[in-house]
Design goal:
The complex is a heterotrimer of chains A (494), B (335) and C (337). With 494 residues, chain A is an alpha/beta fold. In chain A, 35% of the residues lie in helices and 26% in strands. Chain A has a six-stranded mixed beta sheet with strand order 6-9-10-3-11-12, sandwiched between helices. Chain A has a six-stranded mixed beta sheet with strand order 18-19-20-15-21-22, sandwiched between helices. Chain A has a four-stranded antiparallel beta sheet with strand order 2-1-4-5, with helices on one face. Chain C contains 14 helices and four strands. Classes of the chains: A alpha/beta (494), B mainly alpha (335), C mainly alpha (337). Chains in contact: A-B, A-C, B-C. The A-B interface holds A 295, 297, 316-318, 320-322, 326-327, 329, 334-341, 345, 348-350, 352-353, 356, 359-361, 363, 375, 378, 380-383, 385-387, 389-392, 395, 403 and B 3-4, 6, 186-192, 194-195, 198-199, 201-209, 265-266, 315, 319, 322-323, 325, 327-330, 332-333.
Chain lengths: 494, 335, 337
């Protein structure tokens, strides 16, 4: 029904998809699996028309799709069901199902027809709700069903389900699976993306494993075992990209005690001076949420945070910086830099008070300090007055790092420090992190890149679905073990 | 010396100014006389103050629609003390006016940061509340006959050179602009203000207390509105509740023509000075051509819309120009 | 399909906008405590005054649900009134004048929409600028003077000014229902009908609730967004006509401050300023609340300026109330970029 032929997609500095060939058969549930950034979502965006492939062709029903767009793909029978729901909360189920596709009688809506049809679709999904119910009054699971009903109403022959179970309860998941089976019988083909391995065996027919934008292979789910699959998901040699001089760690810098907040539960961890602590897990495991709470961006409901034994206050980044914590955010363009401001202004924002005298900025000193860091980090720019928005990804990341280096911190939290950065810049950032801990700082590194976590960390904390599931020393950790904890498969797989 | 081609866009205000001056000198023959130029600069001085009151809030990504109302309320409350027959020392009503202005600004800041109300609606409410309060206080009356020592600041003429009169407002505003320029460009507070406006999230991620900064911007705006109130009251020799009913309009025009971008973080004091000159030139030019003031307001409305559009467009262009320049290392750039 | 009547009544109560309760409570309190408030004469004048604001607040509601706002409605009321009066003054047939006035209002709204959608100027600043334009034009076209309707040659306008019903109470109070009230009712009914029964209402919510989803569903969001401002322009022109009929003249200042009251009324009616939520009936009741407050307080001898202060505070409270209502919902947490 859908065929990807030699699909290649490049983003600046990254090869996101490299010669992918996948075929979806009618009535098949085709699972896509791989680490974050393996290319699953990019591939699905090529299918939906949100991205255009650089090379290769996309076939739907045996015909090459020359020009694609979300509207075209939907008219060709591709239905996308995103994690983030695409419903209008203030409208009824019926109106959502027929949004943009209303049946009219003259200028007025043909409510009777739409009501009847909606009722049909809903009962097809075993849902006994009045189609006039407003979507905002439904639970997340039911909302997802409405999305599916919407796809059915458009006669979709192919559905893409992106992490459909991530916010569902167990009974809702059961309901969803029975619907998936029912759709299969009707000949609907489905791409199914999920991080929960046990689910795959329940609903999937075949699985395609992806890694770093390439396809590892497509397997029949009857023939591949779970531990084999985990191995293939990771399956990379650790290159000698990671310059670590491991030293004996010093005192405890950060201690988090029983922290609970939105997205994480009862988390305790310690980071010592002179060490890099990795924080691994899958997307949505609650790592970023935890980091944000530690840094004072978001509030938390219970628990305590200590820096060098001193308790720090909730919900104030100013307080966190004063205590010596800095966070290098995940999204550097939105959270890390003011793109309209120049390098100098971005760098010194964290240290304004210490550079200037009595609240007056000292431009000369600022320039000196910035130039020093620009030289030291080899930031590629003709002048420190260049706007941050003009810099490349790696250079931007270096500016964000420089801004925290200046602040003389005790603890650096790196959230995905090398995402979207080319290999050369990556190794420089690793070298920097190593130097930092050598000088006695502590680093907490959140990363979804397994080899990076394994290569850089002294200890590795692993989270899964908001909970801490494991802590490994670097000498006992390997890829399979970390993934096992991350997929929270400790009982079944080990 | 132009390091970035994008920098050209920073000077757009002055290009507009020159174009408009040329246009008016062609249409109106008395336009370029010294006396007229002096009048224009004098008028621009007043506009520059309210423009700056607007700028400090726009820099944070907000807007202040209540400037005119704050001017009226703060001066009316102190009106009796500013009258000639009052025995209270001059400094008292002046200080009090600034305090009242700041308090209203604090209220605005509180609504924006604590109650999460968008700035334009919070200050929209204040615009009516403060004006209503001013009317409540004074009724339909007017405090007429302001002390000479206050009037001097707004009406005094220092000396005259070939028909060009150097007036007190010019001096006052020059000093005022220098002070504010220092505050927002040279101090840590100002730097944080700009940074918060350019990217509030990044500012928060850098440990900047963004909410406090926004409150301070609103307080500063209220304070400057108080200063503007005193200057206007001194000029018209009366304090009444109808002062500046349309000044929020002028203030927005001045700031926007001065290159301020509505989304925040972009705009400068000298841009506002240029914006004030442009508006003053337009007003004077239109007065010369005997265009009624109502049409002038309609014109300002159009000016505001296009200023927003062009500033956004300039900003986008500026970012694009830079984007096409490949990043060079230091050694390459020197070669 | 049939539910027991108790349940449906409870559901009906749940569906009522918050402004209903405020209105009912205020109304009863005012009738009880303010002498003359409940008199037929006063109620008649209250309805007559509120009619104009009801139309404006429902227009505001439409704009707010899409996530925009229209601050130019007050200006349009002044401007369109002046345009109609000038056309009549120049000897044009009154029906033609009214129709041209309405068309002019639509045109003005079209410009608003184009500025918002095509020039990408934020709605509040775009319509704020256009308000200045409307004010300037209204003053220019009228020479800043009131333009009175002639006594003869305007049969339709005279007809529209008559009363449908005059009921003399034994106490001497007169309850009057005028044609203007009829126009208001018909306009609002039509608006609600289109809102409920055609794609118009659906798309308005889609624009404000999730514009990306609307685009993915093949809705031409730009076209509909411009349409919204044309409709607010048209509704404001109808309000201008009502104003003209009421005061038998057009004044370049007649719309001053109406946009503020319309925002207050819409916010009181539960229209959430980030868009996607709110209702037209809520805004209509909000308008009643605003006029009940104005009328009641002024009968109670409260200074007119104090009333403005009160309305400003009411606006802030209303916005806080809506914010709380939204945050309580599960949908409220969706982060916007």
């Amino acid at each position: 029904m859908v065929e990807f032929r030699h699909i290649t997609k490049r983003f600046p500095g990254v090869l996101a998809l490299d010669d992918i060939n996948i075929e979806l058969k009618p009535g098949e549930v085709h699972v896509l699996i791989g680490e974050n950034g393996a290319g699953k979502s990019t591939l699905m965006k090529v299918l939906s028309g949100a991205y255009k492939q650089d090379e290769g062709e996309l076939l739907i029903d045996g015909k090459v799709v020359e020009k694609n767009s979300p509207i075209i793909s939907s008219s060709l029978g591709i239905g996308m069901i995103y994690q983030e729901l695409n419903l209008i909360p203030e409208l009824s189920i019926m109106k959502n199902i027929f949004l943009g596709n209303e049946k009219k009688k003259g200028i007025f809506d043909d409510k009777k027809y739409m009501y009847q049809k909606s009722k049909e679709y809903l009962s097809m999904l075993h849902l006994d709700i009045d189609p006039n119910t407003l979507v905002k009054n439904l639970g997340v699971g039911t909302q997802q069903m409405v999305e599916i009903a919407k796809a059915i109403s458009k006669n979709s022959k192919v559905l893409v389900l992106d992490e459909p179970t991530s916010s569902l309860t167990d009974s809702e998941i059961k309901e969803l699976f029975s619907i998936i089976r029912m759709l299969k019988e009707k000949g609907v083909g489905m791409f199914y993306i999920s991080h929960r391995l046990e689910e795959l065996y329940e609903v999937g027919d075949r699985v395609t494993i992806m890694r770093d934008g390439t396809k590892v292979g497509t397997y029949d789910l009857n023939e591949i075992k779970m531990d084999e699959m985990i191995e293939k998901i990771a399956g990379r040699k650790i290159e000698n990209l990671y310059p670590r001089n491991r030293i004996k760690h010093g005192d405890c810098v950060l201690e988090v005690k029983n922290l609970t907040g939105k997205g994480f539960e009862n988390i305790s961890l310690k980071v010592y001076s002179g060490e890099i602590a990795g924080l691994s897990g899958l997307v949505g495991a609650g790592r970023t949420e935890l980091a944000r709470a530690i840094f004072g961006i978001d509030n938390y409901t219970s628990g305590e945070i200590f820096v060098n034994g001193v308790k720090i206050n909730k919900n104030s980044t100013g307080e966190a910086v004063k205590a010596g914590i800095g966070l290098l955010p995940e999204d550097r363009k939105i959270q890390g830099l003011a793109l309209k401001k120049n390098i100098r202004e971005n760098m010194v924002i964290t240290v304004l008070s210490s550079l200037g005298k009595k609240g007056v900025a000292n431009l000369k000193k600022e320039k000196e300090v910035c130039q020093k860091y620009v030289d030291e980090l080899e930031i590629a720019t003709p002048t420190i007055e260049k706007l941050a928005g003009f810099l490349s990804g790696g250079t931007q990341q270096k500016v964000v790092i420089a801004k925290w280096l200046m602040a003389n911190l005790k603890l650096f939290i790196f959230d995905e420090p090398t995402r979207g950065i080319d290999v050369g810049a990556k190794s420089e950032i690793y070298r920097l992190m190593d130097e930092l801990v050598a000088k006695g700082a502590a680093v907490l590194m959140i990363s979804s890149d397994l080899p990076e976590v394994l290569g850089m960390s002294d200890r590795i904390y692993i989270m899964s679905q908001g909970k801490m599931t494991g802590c490994l020393n670097h000498d006992e950790a390997d890829q399979n073990l970390v993934l096992t904890y991350a997929y929270n498969q400790t009982e079944e797989a080990v | 010396m132009m390091r970035d081609k994008g920098r050209i866009y920073d000077f757009s205000t002055f290009f507009i100014l020159i174009a408009i001056i040329i246009a008016f000198s062609i249409f109106g023959n008395s336009f370029l006389k010294a006396g007229n130029i002096s009048n224009i600069i004098n008028q621009a001085s007043f506009l520059a103050i309210i423009g700056v009151a607007q700028l400090v809030v726009i820099l944070t990504g907000g807007i202040n629609l209540s400037i005119g109302s704050i001017m009226a309320l703060s001066t009316v409350l102190c009106g009796p003390m500013m009258l000639r027959e009052s025995t209270v020392p001059v400094i008292v009503p002046i200080i009090l006016t600034l305090v009242f202005g700041s308090l209203v600004g604090l209220l605005n800041g509180f609504m924006v940061t604590k109650l999460n109300i968008p700035a334009f609606l919070a200050t929209f409410a204040t615009m009516y509340v403060a004006r209503g309060a001013a009317w409540l206080y004074i009724g339909q009356g007017v405090y007429y006959g302001i002390k000479e020592s206050i009037r001097f600041w707004a009406t005094g003429v220092l000396f005259e050179v070939g028909g060009f009169r150097v007036t007190m407002p010019m001096v006052v505003v020059t000093v005022f602009l220098l002070i504010i320029w220092f505050v927002i460009s040279k101090t840590n507070l100002g730097r944080r203000l700009y940074f918060t406006g350019s990217n509030t999230t990044a500012a928060e991620f850098s440990g900047v207390p963004t909410k406090r900064i926004v409150v301070i911007a609103h307080v500063l705006s209220g304070l400057i509105s108080g200063i503007a109130g005193i200057m206007y009251v001194a000029r018209i020799n009366a304090a009444d509740a109808n002062l500046g009913t349309q000044y929020h309009f002028d203030a927005i025009s001045v700031a926007l023509i001065g290159g301020a971008v509505m989304s925040g973080g972009v705009g400068s004091i000298w841009g506002v000075a240029g914006g004030a000159l442009i508006i003053a030139v337009i007003q004077s030019g239109m007065n010369n051509m005997q265009i009624p003031s109502e049409v002038q307001k309609a014109f300002l409305g159009v000016v505001i819309i296009f200023a927003v559009f062009f500033n956004n467009w300039f900003q986008e262009k500026k970012m694009k120009v830079g984007d096409t320049q490949p990043a060079k290392t230091k050694s390459e750039a020197k070669a | 399909m049939k539910k027991d009547s108790k349940r449906s009544l409870r559901e009906l109560i749940r569906l009522l906008p918050n402004s209903t309760y405020i209105f009912v409570v205020l109304f009863i309190a005012f009738v009880a405590f303010i002498p003359n408030f409940g008199s037929a004469t006063n109620i008649s004048s209250l309805i007559g005054q509120a009619a104009i604001l009801m139309i404006l607040s429902s227009a505001m509601s439409v704009a707010i649900i899409t996530g925009g706002i229209d601050l130019s409605v007050g200006g349009i009321v002044s401007l369109v009134g002046v345009v109609m009066a000038q056309l009549v003054g120049h000897g044009m047939n009154d029906v033609m004048s009214i129709l041209l006035g309405l068309a002019f209002g639509c045109l003005f709204g079209l410009v608003n929409g184009i500025v918002v959608v095509k020039l990408k100027v934020a709605p509040f600043i775009a319509t704020f600028g256009m308000q200045g334009v409307a004010y300037g034009l209204a003053n220019t076209l009228s020479d800043s003077r009131a333009l009175y309707m002639p006594d003869e040659g305007v049969p339709v306008i005279k007809a529209l000014q008559t009363n449908l019903l005059e009921w003399m109470f034994p106490s001497g109070n007169i309850l009057t229902i005028s044609v203007q009230v009829l126009i208001t009712i018909v306009t609002l009914m039509l608006l609600i009908l289109f809102f409920k029964k055609t794609v118009f209402g659906t798309y308005i919510y889609a624009l404000g609730g999730n514009r990306e989803a609307a685009k993915l569903s093949n809705i031409r969001t730009d076209k509909w967004n411009i349409m919204v401002y044309v409709i607010t322009g048209l509704l404001a022109s109808v309000a201008a006509l009502l104003m003209l009929l009421r005061i038998n003249s057009a004044q370049p200042t007649s719309g001053d401050g109406l946009e503020f009251q319309a925002v207050v009324a819409a916010v009181l009616g539960g229209n959430y300023l980030a868009g996607g939520r709110g209702s037209i009936p809520g805004a209509i009741l909000g308008a009643l609340v605003v006029y009940t407050v104005r009328n009641g307080l002024s009968l109670a001898g409260v200074n007119a300026n104090m009333i403005m202060v009160v309305l400003g505070i009411v606006l802030v409270l209303g916005m806080v109330m809506n914010e709380v209502a939204v945050r309580g919902l599960s949908f409220g947490d969706r982060r916007k970029k």
